[in-house]
Amino acid sequence: MSNHYGNEAAQYFRLPPMPVLRSSMLQTPDVTITRLTSTPGAVNLTDPIPPENAFVLCLQLQPLPRHELWLDGKPERVTPYARGAVSVVDLAARPSAFLPTAFDCLQFYLPEASLQRIAAAEDCAAIRELAIPHGIQDPFVATIGQLLLPALAGNTVPQLFVDGLLIALHSHLAATYSGVRVADARKTGALAPWQELRAKAMIDAHLEDGLSILELAAACELSPAYFCRAFRRSTGLAPHQWLMRRRIDIARDLLERGTLSMTEIAISCGFADQSHFTRVFSQMTGGTPRAWRQARQ
After folding, report:
1. What is the model's pTM?
2. SMART domains in the record, alphabetically (predicted)?
3. Which residues contact 164 (CB under 8 A, 6 or more apart)?
């Protein structure tokens, strides 16, 4: 375990370990999302944060009526934050904060190396700065945060789902706050037949262990953001939705054969456990795996 801020954000706020979601799509310091919550008076002054080349994007899940912020030892002008407020700090500026009130927020740790790799995959300039006014309301970032909350609460979600959200977030931040030109989504076409076949075959080959958006996009010779949009246009589903549908298709076949246990089917189809399998199967078919099997015996 490295000592990057993203791995241990809670300790700088003198908080116990908090829920952390990591992206495994990059062979660099992970992009991480941490949910930090505190009661009044539990934090007060944060511990010194070692400087590093990374941004921390913060989304407030409840109002933050009072706080103070210092960058490079100098006070930064801030105002109370409403629910949904977004702000960013550059960890190279050695930030510290005074937080005497209760708070609940998401922190997106965005290391420079990861931003560079995403930019390279997208064939665009890397994000060098984020000109985000303190406390701005950004419905797009708020939506991304809300979609990630179930995963942070411990629910199992496909890595393709997390990857897709982070790719979308990168495109939004680059275009809105960094002046980086990104591909126009309106100009995105569907996948070529060979690209669609290759992507579907790769997903089928990795039902159990999964794979990343970057891997799928590279195999189709497309940028990740373009691939996600083109895949949806071709199939009517996002990559992670297609993955879950294929897992359920294979599970149905195995259930009808009747030779494997529920747990064996769950693991072989890439579900975390039998409970996860049953929950997803029921959501997608309207009945439990056991009922499905019994109806066909």
Report:
1. 0.79
2. HTH_ARAC
3. 213, 228, 238, 239, 240
